[in-house]
Every structure is written in structure tokens, then in C-alpha cells.
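Recall the central idea of this unit: under ordinary conditions, the amino acid sequence of a chain determines the structure it adopts. In this exercise we apply that idea directly, starting from the sequence alone.
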Amino acid sequence: MIRNLECSFMDKEHSGRLFHFEHRVLLADTDPSGRMRLDAVSRVLQDAATLDVENTSLTKKGPWVLRWMELVARGIPCYLEQLEVKTYCSGLGRAWAERSTVIDSQSSSITAVANWVLLDDLGRSPIRLSEEFLSVYGESANGKTSSPRLHLGQRFSVTELTERLVVPLRYADLDIMGHMNNAIHLALVEEALFQLGIKLLDDFKYRIEFLSEIEPKIPVTIGVRNSQSTTMLALFQNDDIKSIIELAKVV
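Accordingly, the structure predicted from this sequence is:
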């Protein structure tokens, strides 16, 4: 179940560090109708996290990997719209931190909450957040504890999928860590929705969970289970689920 992010996030009286920047929706961000694609939204959210951390004087700035993200969209931006992006740390854990971000445009408002895990310099194992990090982001988190725990996989299996789409993994899909980038997961989700004729609603919400790494050079299968209330999608290789997304209408 996807939480109601709007009440918990938008009405919060914020204190502590708040990072702000602007982005304009351009050609590479949009589909043929001019709507901003899900992967383009994901890139803006990823950029917000990177730019915020890079703007600090932290000695240890990464690498970070995304564990899960929940997003609520009231409308979605279109070509040439100006986006106002605000982001802050909204929770902490032993080796992870929660980030909340709002993207506002003239025609839409998007709210996202994500759990990011801090890794060692080799990008392999989680490491504890430093006192230096807590001194920068602790006030903003306001004592809230965030958990990297995943739950979508507990009620989802490959055998339940009713539709499947196989896609090759491209070199361009890999990022600086050699992982398939978070935004690419959403690009494949959007491709699956299009191929299956599932239209993205004006107001929608989703939760995406990342279970394990996509392996290079192995085709990715996108499986879909569509119901009246939700659409579940899984990205997997050799029947091993790598990520799961639950997509639903905002009511």
C-alpha cells in the first residue's frame, strides 16, 4: 500500500537544510504528446539528491544507492514548463537516509519520498552515517527514523505475471557505478505500459523497490499484473526479480 505522502510532506513545517533548484522540461524529457516521461521525472529527483549533497562540505559524499521510492503526482509537467524543485532529508537510519522532494510546475505537483543507502568507496557494502553527515542533515530529519525495508515482494511472484515483455540491456543504460540507472527502470516501466496499452492517468502514485542489481549483458524481462485498482510490474532476469513497482490511481 502506497502511503498518502501529500499530507505528511506538504504540510510539514520544515526546519534545517532545504535545497532548491530549477529545471525546465525539454525535448529529451518528453514523450510524443509532450508529457514529461517517468524516467525524466526520476532523473530530476536523482539530480536533486546529487546536487544537494555536492552543495555541502561533506568529506564523504557517496556513493548512494536507491532502496525504494514512493511518488504521488497531481498532474505531470509538459514540454517547456519550468519546474521548481525543493528537497530535504526527512529521515535517518544507521547507514541510510530518507529524502523528500517536491516538484512544482504551473500545471502539476509531484511529491516523492525515497530511501537511499550509503555505500563504501567500492560501492559494495553499506557504511554507517558519519557525525559529519548528521551535523548537516540531522536537524532536517527532525528525529524521524527511516527504514530500507522492502515489502512489495512479499505479495508478488513471477508466476502471477499475465504479460511479459523482453528488452535488451544497453551500454547506455549503465551509470558511473556500472548499475542500470534508477531512471532506466522507470523508462522500461513506461515502455511496458505503452506496449500493453495501459494509459498513465493524470493523477497517479507509485512505489518502486530495488531488490538487487540488474546484471549487464543479460536481457531484462518486464512482467505485468494488471487489476482494476493497481498495476504491478516487475523487472527480472532468469526469473530473479530485480525491482518491483506498484502503480495506482490517486483518489
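The longest helix spans residues 38-54.
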